[in-house]
């Protein structure tokens, strides 16, 4: 072969190699980017040409796809949209998806490996492809009650209800909520208008799993669990009853609610201190137990762990504790302690379950397009937080708490075990209405539901004296009543 021909051959080979390399880069390396690029109309048309699977709970369809007459063949439709929006999320042409719509997207769009048989059958028969279905653990009666209780009072907050023995989430409400239907519209102006309005009102935030809050006195359950587990304390152990103390190594004063003494004696039992929620008693208790004991107990309850239900959950934390003074502040659920409402519900669910921590989950079952079960979520035990005897003692203490609380919504014939909390926050906490909590489970001797209620700013931005018992307690009791079959 002469030199000019050899050069041409080499040049052709190099160009072929470059062409093959570019083809490989485009089809393999960049395939995902091109497929997910919002400007790729072919992907969008293909996605909306398939009937997306439905989301349901206890036989009630929460999200489904309906055929349209426009260029995008199917449109998402949500029944009781605002009630279930924190769970279902939205599915939008412009803004993508969130909630179960995103977390279970591969099932709903039919690409999940567990639906391979149906995809193959569709290919062979020429049948229109469609997605699988997702069945949730949500109990519609409990969810509706939780939403109505928050919405009717105009509260910003969240309710989470869990079945202690399995980790099934029976309700996950967040207000203010939003209607996913306008976001699912094929009209871009309607989508944009809804998106701006929902964002401006903070309605797209799922406060149950995406926001963390200081837990206030509900964190004293962690303190008490650590004290009982240490073997050094019993419910009758004596703690300080002083109305205020000076944090160790500082000139900072910590006082009880309204500056009250914890009883009439110089000391108070652990039982009475928990009932009266005495800050000074628990600050001194944690100083005695030490940081590691509190941190270990918090970790055992799941605080700090990554959770997926299958939506990702913001991690809860007890924060940095550089010294004893910081530990004393953390003991009362302040300083850097921050929990999601879901995490708070997990803590009381663990106590109700004899100390065993169960993984919380929303998806009960995956179904094929023909509604046949493909996969079922079983109980997943994450570990043991406390000994069963400690769990029983904590339950007794929480029963003592509930029986001392005033407030509406008490359920005749049902014993609840509970703890309330009032948490300061903001740049000027003394002049900012507190976040208020109520956590509990029932029936105390045979728990069927564990509940956490969080109401931001005491439910009223002018209510500096708001308490968990007065504001969050009636909501929790109504949810418990619904979960036990008592209706709203």
Short description:
By secondary structure, the protein is an alpha+beta fold.
Keywords:
elongated, five-stranded antiparallel sheet, Beta-lactamase, 488 residues, 21 strands, 39% helix, 19% strand, alpha+beta
Could you describe the 3D structure shown?
There is one protein chain. By secondary structure, the protein is α+β, with helices and mostly antiparallel strands. It has a domain at 216-338: Beta-lactamase (3-Layer(aba) Sandwich). 39% of the residues lie in helices and 19% in strands. It contains 19 helices and 21 strands. It has helices at residues 3-29, 31-36, 41-49, 81-88, 100-103, 105-108, 116-125, 140-152, 180-184, 188-200, 220-230, 270-276, 279-289, 291-300, 324-331, 341-352, 388-404, 468-471, 473-483; strands spanning 55-57, 60-67, 74-78, 91-92, 96-97, 133-136, 157-162, 169-175, 238-240, 244-246, 253-255, 267-269, 307-308, 312-313, 356-358, 363-367, 373-376, 381-384, 417-423, 435-442, 449-455. The strands form seven sheets. A six-stranded mixed beta sheet has the order 3-2-1-6-16-17. Strands 8-7-21-20-19 form a five-stranded antiparallel beta sheet. A two-stranded antiparallel ribbon has the order 4-5. Helix 11 crosses helix 17, helix 12 packs across helix 17 (388-404) and helix 13 packs across helix 15. The longest helix is centred in the first third of the chain and has 27 residues, at 3-29. It is elongated. The termini are far apart.
């Amino acid at each position: 072969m002469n030199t000019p021909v050899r050069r041409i051959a080499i040049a052709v080979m190099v160009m072929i190699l470059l062409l093959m390399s570019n083809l490989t880069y485009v089809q393999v390396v960049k395939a995902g980017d091109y497929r997910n690029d919002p400007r790729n109309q072919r992907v969008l048309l293909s996605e909306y040409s398939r009937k997306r699977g439905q989301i349901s709970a206890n036989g009630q369809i929460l999200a489904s796809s309906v055929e349209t007459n426009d260029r995008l063949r199917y449109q998402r439709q949500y029944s009781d949209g605002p009630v279930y929006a924190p769970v279902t999320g939205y599915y939008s042409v412009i803004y993508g998806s969130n909630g179960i719509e995103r977390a279970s997207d591969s099932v709903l769009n039919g690409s999940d490996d567990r639906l391979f048989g149906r995809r193959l059958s569709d290919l062979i028969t020429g049948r229109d492809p469609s997605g699988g279905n997702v069945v949730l653990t949500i109990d519609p009666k409990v969810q509706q009650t939780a939403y109505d209780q928050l919405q009717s009072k105009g509260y910003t907050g969240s309710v989470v209800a869990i079945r202690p023995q399995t980790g099934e989430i029976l309700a996950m409400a967040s207000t203010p909520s939003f209607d996913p239907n306008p976001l699912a519209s094929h009209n871009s102006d309607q989508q944009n208008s809804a998106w701006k309005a929902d964002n401006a009102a903070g309605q797209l935030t799922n406060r149950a799993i995406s926001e963390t809050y200081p837990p206030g006195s509900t964190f004293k359950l962690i303190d008490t669990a650590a004290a009982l587990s240490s073997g050094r304390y019993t419910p009758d152990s004596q703690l300080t009853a002083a109305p205020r103390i000076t944090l160790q190594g500082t000139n900072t004063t910590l006082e009880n609610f309204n500056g009250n003494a914890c009883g009439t004696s110089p000391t108070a039992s652990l039982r009475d201190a928990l009932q009266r929620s005495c800050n000074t008693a628990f600050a001194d208790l944690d100083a005695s137990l030490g940081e590691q004991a509190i941190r270990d107990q918090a970790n055992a309850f799941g605080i700090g762990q990554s959770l997926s239900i299958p939506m990702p959950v913001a991690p809860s934390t007890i924060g940095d504790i550089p010294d004893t003074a910081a530990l004393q502040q953390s003991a009362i659920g302040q300083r850097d302690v921050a929990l999601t409402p879901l995490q708070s519900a997990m803590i009381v669910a663990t106590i109700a379950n004899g100390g065993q921590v169960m993984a919380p989950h929303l998806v009960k079952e995956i179904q094929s397009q023909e509604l046949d079960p493909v996969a079922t979520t079983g109980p997943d035990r994450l570990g043991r937080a406390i000994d069963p005897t400690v769990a029983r003692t904590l339950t007794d203490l929480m029963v003592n708490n509930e029986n001392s609380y005033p407030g509406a919504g008490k359920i005749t014939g049902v014993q609840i075990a509970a703890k309330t909390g009032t948490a300061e926050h903001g740049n000027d906490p003394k002049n900012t209405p507190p976040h208020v909590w109520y956590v509990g489970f029932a029936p105390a001797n045979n728990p069927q539901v564990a509940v956490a209620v969080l109401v931001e700013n005491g439910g009223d931005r002018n209510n500096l004296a708001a308490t968990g018992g007065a504001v969050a307690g009636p909501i929790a009791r109504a949810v418990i009543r619904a979960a036990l079959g008592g209706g709203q």
